[in-house]
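WARN retry 2 of 3 for item q-0093 after timeout on previous attempt; input resubmitted unchanged.
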Amino acid sequence: MELRSQKTARSLTLKSLPSRDRKGAVALYILLWLAPVLSAQQNFTYEVRHEHLRKGCTGTLRVSQRGVSYQEVSKKRKKHLHAWEWSYQDIQQLEVGPKELRVLTYKDNPWKLGADREYHFRVLGERQLLEVYALLKDRLDQRFVAALADQDLTPLWEVPVKHLGRISGSEGLLIAGRDRIVYMTARRGDSRTWRHQDIENISSSGPFQLTLTTYERARSHYGSLKGFNFQLKEPLTEDRYNDLWRRLNQEKGLRSLTLTSEQETKQ
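OK item q-0093 returned
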């Protein structure tokens, strides 16, 4: 009865409008109804520079729900322009930062003794790749690397830290949320947002140290996991550490149960 009343009220409201306003209201209603479909077909286009050994080149980068593509734009050259298109299943790792995007493919690079070929793009102008992050953050699997700090995170707790690097580190803020962890720093390329599914394990040698072992590929070790080692400027209490460990492992357990259920259904 309540649903029928709502439909009747909406119909009466539209009929009471002048003809011209009624058409506008109907168009708005249709647009709102189609909004989920339109959002699923988002296609973002950027003017970028493709970085490579010989100077680099500029072109158009497109990112959609289906994949990533690049088309070189050159006024001088008409032939042999760089052009690639990757579906997400053909991308071994996709790294998205505020102004940079890296596509690591499964193809061998003959110039680097068989290492996998990687493509690096840098956005020109003032635009950033935040809308790409919003599009992909809950759609892609562990091959997605968010090299930026999620600004919409609701923190459970936060602690100032130093991220230890091989030569030099960076200082910032480590923030724990309900379903992800953020490292926020001013150092270019060092910020991260990890969904719980992106973290293989956490460990600690004491209240002033925390290591996150992630599924991001370590460049110095072929195919290995990448660890982020933090010095904490304030002690991390045992309760907070245990709660974080429990949240990570509970999510792993739920994913395991889901996969088992799907396999049993297929059988």
